[in-house]
Amino acid sequence: MVSVDVENTGQRPGDEIVQVYVTDVVTRQPGEQALKGFTRVHLAPGEKKAVRFELPWEAFQIVMPRAAAWSSRASSRSSSVLRHAIAIC
Fold first, then answer.
1. Three-class SS of 10-35
2. Which of 19, 45, 83, 84 has the highest count of CB atoms within 10 angstroms of its CB?
3. What is the second-level CATH architecture of the domain 2-88?
4. Structural domain boundaries in the chain
5. Cα separation of 13 and 60, whole Å?
6. For 55-84, b where at least 16 C-beta lie within 10 A, e where not — what string?
7. List of residues 6+ apart from 7 with CB closer than 8 A
8. pLDDT of residue 78
9. Which pLDDT belongs to residue 48?
10. Which segments of the chain have a pLDDT < 70?
């Protein structure tokens, strides 16, 4: 499970798209982050919510382009939660 708190620190209500990515920490090749879950969260001004992602073990498999195969070395995976896709560029 991946969990993160999201808070609206502004004065207006708004929506946030919370995204969870999986990365192979052994290779750390640029662009090899894989989006494994996302959800839209509506927050009132000052509101804070816990967002949880239940990821199956298959979510930690990553395509290894050079080998043209799936890799499932779970011990070498890292997850990260981002506000929006622009944060990974």
1. CCCCEEEEEEEEEEECCCCCCCCCEE
2. 19
3. Sandwich (2.60)
4. 2-88
5. 34
6. eeeebbbbeeeeeeeebeeeeebebebbee
7. 43, 46, 47, 48, 49
8. 53
9. 94
10. 24-32, 62-89
